[in-house]
Amino acid sequence: MNGFERRKQQKKIDILKASLALFKKYGVQKVSITEIADKAKVSQVTIYNYFGSKDNLIHEVIIFYVDQVWEEYEQLFNSSAPFPDKIKQIIFDKQEEADQINTEFFDSLMEEYTKGSNYIEEMYTKKALPRFIDLFNEGKEKGYVDPTISNEAILLYIQIFKDYMQRKDMAKNILPLTEEITKLFFYGIAGKGIN
């Protein structure tokens, strides 16, 4: 990639980062192209040249955000952290960030997700799901997870935790219980080793 292409790519990333920061704080509708341009230190014309419209920019920002989140998960999956710590991070780690995301931006993410065939669904199916399955298999091999429990049941169980955690009114109540909830996740209410 030559110098011009590198600068062009960097400008696009700067616009995406600025847009994401503003959308997360204020929501999509309240942020103007002028504000994005000011934060990204580019002209409004540059934004329209790169993205065509605010709607296209929003779509690209959502993809950018999903890629960032996935990158963090990849680092977690590839880390040498023990299996229980990985699960704890998957369930609890994003809560502080979720509390800081504007509801309207979150709604835009959900709208993108429910469009049917889309980037988020493709990312989940092709990248995330296989990595989660590998993680669960690792947990089974290391004795953390009962091998008779299907990966589908584990995925559902984690999703239930995450969905509940993402309710804004629940976060402050749940975070102090992180250790106890993690124990419940691994051992249920009967405790370890009880059949």
TrEMBL record:
Gene3D superfamilies: Tetracycline Repressor, domain 2. Signal peptide: none annotated. The keyword Membrane does not apply. Residues 32-51 bind DNA. Keywords: DNA-binding, Repressor. It comes from the Bacteria. InterPro entries: Homeodomain-like_sf (IPR009057), HTH-type_Tx_Regulator (IPR050624), HTH_TetR (IPR001647). Residues 9-69 form the HTH tetR-type domain. The keyword Ligase does not apply. It holds the Pfam family TetR_N. This is AcrR family transcriptional regulator.
